[in-house]
Amino acid sequence: MSVENYVDHWGTSPRDPVATALAGIENALGDLLAMDPAYWRTSQKKDVLARLQHLKAQQAALELRVLATAGDIAEETGDKDASAWMRADLLVDKGTARAQIKLAAAMSKHELLAASLADGVLSHDKARVITKALDAIEANPVASAEDLLLAEKLLVDYATRLTANELRIVGKRILVEIDPARFEDAEAKALLAEEERAQQKTALRIWDNHDGTVGFDGVLPVALGMRFKTHVEAWAQPRKQQLLEKGTPLPPWERLMGQAFTRLLETIDPDAQPRHGGDATTINVVISLDDLRKELGTAILGFDETNGATISATEARKMACNAQIIPWVLGTDGQVLDAGRSSRFFQPIQRKALRLQQKCCQADGCDMPPEWCDAHHLTPWSLGGKTDLKDGVLLCPHHHRLAHAPGFTHERLPDGTIRFTRRP
User: Fold this and answer.
1) Where would I find the H helices in 119-277?
2) pTM listed for this prediction
3) Beta partners for 328?
4) Residue 19 clears pLDDT 60, i.e. is over it
5) Contact predicate 92/84, CB 8 Å
6) pLDDT bracket for residue 280 (50, 70, 90)
7) What is the residue-wise DSSP string for 331-398?
8) Mapping DSSP to helix (H, G, I), strand (E, B) and coil, where does residue 248 land?
9) 378 Cβ neighbours under 8 A, 6+ residues apart
10) Cβ burial, residue 239 (10 Å; 0-12/13-18/19+)
11) Neighbouring residues of 219: CB distance < 8 A, sequence distance ≥ 6
12) Three-state SS for 81?
């Protein structure tokens, strides 16, 4: 229907039906927003949430229909598409705008998909998943036009029963479901090609945030990535259970996973690592004699500040308990007073003996199991402590950090447990 020079059925009052319809939507939303959901019945809240999902799908369908015909907006601004106008007037990032325009173009090719979105049968996210799957089928030389139509019908049907993520998984195998004989081999070849591309995309970036943290991000092939996830979760989950049993509020899952990753790194066996720079994979820590002796001091992780990082002496002492480090102790003029020894940490047989003697974390009142604990020197190596069983005690990561924290003192009680006390 054209909206140019629209006249109502009385033939008297010209008006814009698009503006009128939008005004009706805005007024209705304004009425709802003026209400307080806290006073709504549970059935009303559920009904509102369900109908809003339906309305969001219809809103997305309308937006995509408009974008699919927005070439005149681009012509008016002299751009190749409407993304420049969306960036300038709507403050939508160009990447997001172009993704929407691309989706609108894809939706215009798939009538059933577009109609289902307009009817509110599937969501915007599911529509995006299906178009991506259909684009892959369209590019598949083995698939026919009939396969494409059947895949669209099946995926729209699946969308009524699956989440967007579940639908994405089904979309990758939809051709095999249509015709296993033709597409199983093709799927295997596609997976091999995908895995090869994944190897080329593998990357890891590490940087110093200069705030006491190091940032990193990366991309791994899915098989290795899932192994990595499983290893980290193995360290995170036991802590989660312990906290639940104690009734302590859980930290955010991301923090639990981050702490678990640090534990994973701390438990790597240095002897199993490749040689680095001609030596066994070890960490060098440079610290002055004065800083070594006092509670508050600094050390350099590495050989110098340019190629290393500054850490607290407390952290250096903690690392010495269970990491293969070589401490370089310097005098006032920078001369090397002691090059230390790299095997300050407890050996596997000693850890097994400690587990037999100590059934859990030895901090007073803590029951963290021994497999999640560190072996700690009661007499610090900085004070001449030796790595032997009578000087060793199992502490969970939390209490191990307290044992090295300047703000706490600790003592061994007659029953062998360790009591921590905050300094006054």
Assistant:
1) 124-138, 145-159, 164-172, 174-178, 180-201, 222-246, 253-266
2) 0.50
3) 286
4) yes
5) no
6) very low
7) -TTS-EEE---S--SPPHHHHHHHHHH-SS--BTT----GGG-EEEESS-GGGT---SGGGEEEE-HH
8) coil
9) 385, 391, 392, 393, 412
10) buried
11) 198, 201, 202, 203
12) coil
Spatial CB neighbours of 336, under 8 Å, sequence gap ≥ 6: 328, 329, 330
At residue 314, the 3 state secondary structure works out as helix
3-state SS class at 294: coil
Rounded Cα gap, residues 134 and 174, in angstroms: 10
309: closest CA among 204, 400, 211?
211
Point out which residues pair with 276 in neighbouring strands: 279
Gap between the Cα atoms of 124 and 305, Å rounded: 51
Would you say residue 64 has pLDDT above 50?
A: yes
Mean pLDDT of 87-99: 90
Q: Rounded mean pLDDT of 235-259?
A: 70
Whether 273 and 256 have beta carbons less than 8 Å apart is answered as no
Given the structure tokens 């905050």, which residue do they identify? 422
**At which residue do the structure tokens 């049968």 appear?**
121
Tokens of 199: 């190897």
Residue 291 identity: D
Task: Quote the crossing angle between the two packed helices 164-172 and 145-159, to the nearest 10°.
Answer: 150
Q: How far apart are CA 148 and CA 127, in angstroms?
A: 15
Q: 172 burial class (0-12, 13-18, 19+ CB within 10 angstroms)?
A: middle
Domain boundaries, the chain: 41-201, 204-267, 285-321, 338-422
Query: Position of tokens 């705008």?
Result: 97
Residue with tokens 């007659």: 414
Q: Which residue has the tokens 């070890």?
A: 282
- Report the mean per-residue pLDDT for the chain: 79
